[in-house]
Amino acid sequence: MSEYNTVIGLEVHSELNTKTKCFCGCKNEFGSNPNTHTCPVCTAMPGALPVLNRDAVERAILMGLAVGCRINNYSVFERKNYFYPDLSKAYQISQLEYPLCVGGGIEIEVDGKKKFIRLNRIHLEEDAGKLIHSNAGTLVDYNRGGVPLIEIVSEPDMSSAEEAVAYLQKLRSTLLYVGVSDCKMQEGSIRFDVNISVNKDGEPLGTRTELKNLNSFRAVLKAIKYEANRQIEELEAGRAIVQETRRWDDEKGRTYSMRSKEDSQDYRYFPDPDLIPLDVKPEYIDTIRARLPKLAPQRIEEYKSWGLTEQDAKLLTDEREYADFFEAVLKEFNEPKFVCNWITAEVFKKLNAIEDEEKKIPVNPSELASMLKLYKDGEINQAGARKIFDILWEKGGNPVQLVEELGLKQMNDTGALKEILQKIVADNPKAVKELQEGNEKTMAFFVGQAMRATQGKANPKMVADIVKELIK
């Protein structure tokens, strides 16, 4: 099986967070009662005419610029014809021959190796409605029908499930940086279609299958590995791969055939007669380019100039939320390395414990800055800082008041500490001898004893200094 190559291309559908739909004035809002955000246009009533949403065009261009696409000055909306119950028009307004954005790409890194994944295009289209299946039958909610989305199509440049996941994570991060989509996987505002085939060196590309509407990185990882192995087993058994669309069953951990896979000609694309071609002037593109925020590569270089390592800078910029949070804390407490160390250790530790793929930081940046200042100034020790941080994470609070209420103020009285440590040193001659012989690990024993004697309030650095002085 190892002699086969896996070839992967991805289509990502990301709903744009506009206020209204792509071709009508209905609200673009998730979670409302079924069929309450509909009108004659998005339900295809006879005589209703579409009007293009300018904001959707600008958001699509903004994302295209962020990933290095060339923006076409001339693009055309076409009708993609197919029949399905969630598509009230029996066609979808999309783009094929003349998309809005072409080219560009995203650099990924897997196991320390960098790779550039080329993009074929980003085009603007409308979403379909949603089917709700139950034992009583299938219901249709057209609230989502007509919601603007961009389809981001990669070239088949990925050769492993891990590369595909790295690409999707980087793409989602970029969408969030640019601010054009909320990328909420649980709400379906970002969905992944995977095209996958296998072949041997020197042979033509194999027949591909498509895995539709995966909505988590974990599902993408497992589905690709399963489907690649399935195709290899089919070929090894002398059976041909059928070009088809398949469904991933997460509970059973396998894919199932849904229907034969269509080619573009099967959809009978033709220009939408109700929408004129889109003429995007270069100067208009420049005004949109000026709105691009600082993206991860720019922030990485900036953070490195503040004394952070490249690894730390990359960790902080993986998600825009992390970078924004880091910078918000710095506005109150300008100690980049100190703040970075706390976020990458303590904040990320709590985030990693969250099972949802969408992880949010609940702490107020000003409150964290106040706590870190107390810690840096020696008002509290690390144990005290962690106690306060746990409270800030759960419900928030005023760190200064919490120090007083919980009695966490660090003991910095040299005389009092020396008196306590004299007794500890006298009672532990064996530990003293080990420390005198150069076993530095023994210092942790003395610090622990001092913490126990002071109910966790001793200043660890002062304890170490005093112990060294006493055992000379």
Helix content: 25-40%
Task: Count every beta strand, where a strand is a DSSP E run of 2 or more residues.
Answer: 17
- Helices, by number, come to 15
Unreliable residue stretches: none
Mean pLDDT across all residues, rounded? 93
Briefly summarize what is shown.
The protein is α+β, with helices and mostly antiparallel strands. The chain contains 15 helices and 17 strands.
Descriptive report:
The structure is a single chain. The chain is of the alpha+beta class. It folds into three domains: 4-285, no CATH class; 296-406, no CATH class; 414-470, Arc Repressor Mutant, subunit A (Orthogonal Bundle), CATH 1.10.10. 39% of the residues lie in helices and 21% in strands. The strands form four sheets. Strands 1, 2, 6, 7, 8, 11, 12, 13, 14 and 15 form a ten-stranded mixed sheet that branches. A three-stranded antiparallel sheet has the order 5-4-16, with no helix packed on it. A hairpin with a 4-residue loop joins strand 14 and strand 15. Helix 14 crosses helix 15. The longest helix is centred in the middle third of the chain and has 20 residues, at 217-236. The model has no long low-confidence stretch (mean pLDDT 93).
